[in-house]
Amino acid sequence: MSIFLYLAAALSADPGFLALQAMDNRVMTIGYRLASRNVAHCPNAVPNSGVSFHSLGQYGPEERSRVARTFGQGAGPRVMAVAKNSPAEKAGLLPNDLILAAGDARLGEALTPKPTMDAVLRVRKAFAAGLAQGPLSVRVKRGSAEKELMIPRHPACPSTIELFPSSKREAAADGNMLQISSAMVEQTQSDDELAFILAHEMAHNILQHPARLDRIGRKKANILATEIEADKLAVRLMADAGYDPFAAARFWARYGRGPKHGILSDGTHMRSKDRVELLLTEAGKIEAGKIVRPTAQ
Q1: What helix, strand, coil percent values describe the chain, rounded to 5?
Q2: Mean pLDDT score of the chain, rounded to an integer?
Q3: Residue 113, pLDDT score
Q4: What CATH number does the domain located at 3-36+49-153 have?
Q5: What is the dihedral sign for C-alpha 228, 233, 235, 238?
Q6: What pTM was computed for the model?
Q7: Mean pLDDT over residues 153-180, rounded?
Q8: Alpha-carbon torsion angle 19, 20, 24, 30, nearest 10
Q9: pLDDT confidence of 259, banded at 50, 70, 90?
Q10: N or C: which end of the chain has fewer CB within 10 A?
Q11: How far apart are CA 294 and CA 297, in angstroms?
Q12: How far apart are the C-alpha atoms of 100 and 259, rounded to whole Å?
C-alpha cells in the first residue's frame, strides 16, 4: 500500500470504532491471561486462541459504511482483537484480518436487512471445533493477499469474552459467555482493576453458578452466596495470573462509593464496606501464603 493510500485509509477511519477496538484488545489480553494461567482451577479447560471477531452484518445499516471504512470492506468475519501472548498472536493473526476459512469450515456472510451475529457465531464455532482436534489451520485475507496461518492449541478456562458498547456499567456471566460493557471498562484505573471484574465473572462460569441457581432458585440468599464465592475465587485467579490481588479491594472501595444501581443494596450483593473487607482478607491470605496456589498444568 502506498503512503497516500495508507493516509487516506487512516483519515477515513472512525475514531469511535478505533477506540472500541483498542478497548477490546485490552479486555481480550487480560481475559486470555486470566483464563490461560488458571487451568488448575478448571478441570473442563478448553483450547483458547485469544482472539475476538466481528462482522459487518452485526452492525446496523447506518453504521456499516463507517465500519467498512475503519476495518475493511466485505461482509465476512474479521479479527477485532488479538490478545497479547496468545496462540493467535503467535500464529501471526492480526486485527482486521478477514477470516476466509478455519480448518474445513469456509466462512462468509451475505448481508441481510437486519443486523446479525451469524458470521461471528460461525467463526467462533469453527475455531472451537478445529482447536479441539489440534493446531488449527486458518486462511485469512490481509489487504489483497491471502495467508495461511497455523494457530497452536493451548488450554484455558472456558469463557467466551465479549465487549459491548454501552453507557451502562455492566458485567455478566451466563455459564459460557463473559460480557462486559465499555462503560464498565472505563471505570477501571489499571489493568489490575479490570482483571478483577473479568475474574469475578469468570469465577461465576468456573463455579457453574448460573446452572446452580437454575437448580436451587434465584432467591436473594442463594445469589448472595454465589457472589461471595465468585469474589473469593476472583482474587485467587488474579494472583495466579500475576495481577495484584489487592487491586480488587482498591477498585471496590472507590467504585462502591458511587451511585447505587439497585443490585448493590437489594440483598443479592454484600454491602460495599463488607465487600471491601472480604476482598482485603482474601488478598491478605494469598500474600501470607495461607492459600496455596495450584500449579498450572
Answers
A1: 50, 15, 35
A2: 89
A3: 57
A4: 2.30.42.10
A5: negative
A6: 0.90
A7: 95
A8: 50
A9: low
A10: C
A11: 9
A12: 46
Structural domain boundaries in the chain: 3-36+49-153, 160-288
The grid coordinates of residue 139 equal: 486462511
* Statement: residue 262 has pLDDT above 70: no
Rounded Cα gap, residues 198 and 4, in angstroms: 41
Tens-digit pLDDT profile for residues 137-149: 999 999 889 999 9
* Rounded Cα–Cα distance for residues 268 and 202 (Å): 18
Residue that is written with C-alpha cell 464465592 in the block: 229
Which conformational region is residue 294 in: left (phi greater than 0), alpha (psi within -120 to 50 degrees), or beta? beta
pLDDT in tens, 29-82: 999 999 999 999 998 999 999 999 999 888 888 888 899 889 987 768 999 999
User: In the structure grid, which three cell numbers stand for residue 199, read together?
Assistant: 475474574
Q: Dmax of the chain from CA atoms?
A: 62
- Which residues fall within 8 angstroms of residue 118, CB to CB, at 6 or more apart? 57, 109
